[in-house]
Amino acid sequence: MFLSLKLPNKQNSVSKVSNGGRSTSQMRLIGRLLALTTGGLILSAPLRAEDNGGSKGLLREQQKPQASQPSAPESTPSPPLSGAAVLNKFPDPNLELSPADVDTVEQPAAATSNDKLSAIIGKAAPTEWERLTKLGNDAFSQALYADAEKTYMASIRELKKTNLKDERLAKSRNNLGSAYLREGKYQDAKEAFQLADTTIRELGKTESLEEARALTGLAAVNKQTGQMSKAEELLKSALKIRQKAEGADSQGVAQCLLDLADLYRKQKLFSEADPVYQLSLETLNKAPDVAELSKAYFLDRTGQFFQDQGKMPEAKRCFEASLTIKDKFSVMYTPVNPRKRGLVYYRCLTGAPNAAKVLNRGVEIEALYVKDVTCVATLATQVLGRDWALLKGEVTLLNRGKTAISALPEQPALFLEIPREQVLTPLSSEAIATELGARGRLLADRIMHSADFAFMLENHTVSTTTVAPVGPVFNTITNWTSVTPDWQARARARNEAIMALSGTLSEGQSVVRTKPAETTIGPGETATFDIFFPYKRFEAATLRFLVGNTVLEFPFGEKG
User: Fold this and answer.
1) Smaller CB count within 10 Å for the chain: N or C?
2) Within 10 A of 558 (CB to CB), how many other CB atoms are there?
3) DSSP letters for 18-69
4) At residue 170, what are phi and psi to the nearest 5 degrees?
5) 3-state DSSP call for residue 199?
6) For residue 332, what are the β-bridge partners?
7) What pLDDT does 485 receive?
8) What pLDDT does residue 503 have?
């Protein structure tokens, strides 16, 4: 199904990587993963479809030149992200592309008066609501969801000052619901989307795109809380609205179909999901002005659908076609501005031609090969005390190219997916060191108190004496305590407490020294990053970090 692709094999030499505390067997595995490379991700032959269905036209479309689009004025706010899009494990790269990334269309020499008037209006200063919305969207795109939440709430307050209720209020509430979803605040997200839906109904615009966004967001909330039937009903309602508002063949309709197919896939209803995936691909192929990265995004999701069923040949063909598209937009050299150019997402998946996974002694090692960069990542729990631990990610990057690359231009993030969606960002080095110092002092106090208690328990004796009565007086009993000091035990407890305190302080200094920061890696060089996150239990999570404009994603299993 889909494509038959051929990949030439290449071999490249690898530099040595410092072990960073890993076991010898793990180092051998990491060395082998760094040595491997898929190479030649550019196809050696034209694409050809082998099966009928919607994918045939979609993949033929990839060979056509990309349709150019006019760039939007700078004052125009970024389009808000939909509630469904932010819940996807594969974020839609098209949502984060700047208008500056697409080629502009030449303007006609003679402009009409209406065109001139539109140009003047377009250059007008943005309103405070537009400014806050753009700031919120920028924070959201950088996974700063708490900041996005505050900014979206400020945009709502700004609108309420005018005592006017229009569609902008519904848009801000949908944006706020999307931020709540990413933070795992499902009840707050539900209330925000319901308020957006109420606003739209009061305005009488029940067939608008904002209504579709509100319904899609509510469907995402129900999906995360296990109410699959309700989520399906809401997605179908949103789909009908989008078909009326945008037409049957639009990218929004294709996205809604893809979300519905993913809902079936999550319930392992593969027979129901299959035709919906096919229809989403057919719809995307017919939609006008679809960015190529969006096609890659749809292919990745479809490939994961086949992977879940164990249909690896079909999954591999989807992944290969997606890689061919993404490699054209992926840039890793130093002078790149990732947010202006747009982000390209690569995910380490079983069956993907540029990915590898190994489980060694309980440690999951994942590797990705993107162009001239090989990346190996591990995620483990580092226990620092009885009630204190950190999640520690180790990332090793090897530059096999001839140009320096820019790694970690933004702070990495850990996306918890199951049992509850949540985003963890690295604690600042100073905050971690302070917390470790406080924990060390607490641990030292506990050791000393425990030693004092044991000391008293072992050495506490009670003596009793009876005094003979004198005359008609009752017997009198007198008790007293006898304590025998054990100075050696006290000294051992003191030494143990000092060692515990110094150990935590040393860990704090280590975190400060290994604070993740933007780094330039020269040709043939290797760099290793240690990334610390607050400790959380999870069943599935994704470690995500940036190299140039390329987002590398590593999904890990249960930790804690």
Assistant:
1) C
2) 11
3) --TT--HHHHHHHHHHHH------S-SS---B-S-SHHHHHHHHTTSPPPP-
4) -65, -40
5) helix
6) none
7) 59
8) 74
Q: Record the pTM.
A: 0.67
Report the C-alpha gap between 463 and 480 in whole angstroms.
6
Q: What is the pLDDT of residue 296?
A: 94
Rama region for 184: left / alpha / beta (φ>0; ψ in -120 to 50; rest): left
How confident is the model at residue 390, as a pLDDT? 83
What does the buried/exposed string (b/e) look like for 386-405 if buried means 16 or more CB atoms within 10 Å of the residue's CB? eebbbbbbbbbbbbbbeebb
Structure tokens given for 156: 């709502």
Residue 398: in which H helix or E strand, if any?
A: strand 388-399
303 forms beta bridges with none
Q: What is the SS3 assignment for 458?
A: helix
Low-confidence ranges of the chain (pLDDT < 70): 1-126, 384-387, 451-487, 490, 514, 558-560
d(CA 404, CA 469): 98
Q: Do 414 and 424 touch, CB atoms closer than 8 A?
A: yes
C-alpha neighbours within 13 Å on the C-beta side of residue 119: 7
Instruction: Please give, one letter per residue, the 3-state secondary structure of 322-361.
Output: HHHHHHHHCCCECCCCHHHHCCEEEECCCCCCCEEEEEEC
Q: Are 510 and 503 in contact (CB under 8 A)?
A: no
Q: Residue 172: name the closest of 186, 183, 187, 156 by CA.
A: 156
pLDDT of residue 454: 61
For the CA atoms of 466, 467, 472, 473, the dihedral, rounded to the nearest 10 degrees, stands at: -80
pLDDT on residue 32: 59
Q: How far apart are CA 455 and CA 203, in angstroms?
A: 75
Contacts of 383 (CB under 8 A, 6+ apart): 389
Q: In this predicted structure, what is the pLDDT of residue 468? A: 54
Question: How far are the Cα atoms of 157, 202, 305 from residue 166, in angstroms, in the given order?
Answer: 13, 9, 40
Q: How far apart are CA 276 and CA 386, in angstroms?
A: 49
Distance CA 276, CA 262 (A): 9
What span, in angstroms and rounded, lies between the C-alpha atoms of 511 and 83? Answer: 36
State residue 53's pLDDT score: 37
User: Residue 89: in which H helix or E strand, if any?
Assistant: none
Q: Which residue has the tokens 């308020």?
A: 195
